[in-house]
Amino acid sequence: MPPSFFKPQKNRKFSYTPRYYDERKERLEKLKKQYNDDSKANIEARIRGKISRKSARKSPGLFANANLRTFIIIGILIIIVYYFLKKYNITFE
User: Domain extents for the chain?
Assistant: First the structure.
């Protein structure tokens, strides 16, 4: 590097001291605090809510609606492609 009249800028130093974070321990403490503060009625209501959510996920009606929606979309796309093929007289030989 050739000599110059100006001093080159020195790099800035960054001091970082990482802190240890135990996610599992935080989660356990939060759960302990939550269960210690709750009354029996709140605990029963929460358990019922979890059970009803799990049973709602297994509902076959949700999958039937998704399948029906997929078939409708595919049908609409086929009709659109057929329309453009007819309009521009495109044939595959």
Answer: 24-58, 60-93
